[in-house]
C-alpha cells in the first residue's frame, strides 16, 4: 500500500480536521501488485490489483476554534 502525505489543519473545539492539499511526498510500497505503485506489472485498467492509497496526515497548524465548515453551519442555524 502506497502512502501519500496530506497537509491538514486541526480544530480543537469541534475536533474536525480540514484537509488542505497533498504535499506530493509519497511513500511507495514498490509492489508489482499495487496499482498505484510505479512497479505495477499490468497495463490493463481492470486488473485485480488493489489501488488502496493510505494518507499520512501531517498537521500544519492547530486552531483553538471551530472549523470553517462548522462555523458556516452555526451561522446559517442562527439565521433561522
Ligand atoms: Zn502501494
Ligand atoms: Zn494489476
Ligand atoms: Zn468542525
TrEMBL record:
Record protein name field: Uncharacterized protein
Amino acid at each position: 500500500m502506497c502512502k501519500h502525505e496530506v497537509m491538514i489543519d486541526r480544530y480543537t473545539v469541534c475536533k474536525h480536521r480540514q484537509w488542505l492539499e497533498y504535499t506530493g511526498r509519497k511513500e511507495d510500497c514498490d509492489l508489482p501488485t499495487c496499482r498505484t505503485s510505479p512497479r505495477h506489472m499490468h497495463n490493463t485498467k481492470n486488473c485485480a490489483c488493489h489501488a488502496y492509497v493510505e494518507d499520512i496526515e501531517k498537521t500544519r497548524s492547530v486552531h483553538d476554534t471551530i472549523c470553517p465548515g462548522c462555523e458556516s453551519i452555526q451561522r446559517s442555524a442562527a439565521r433561522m
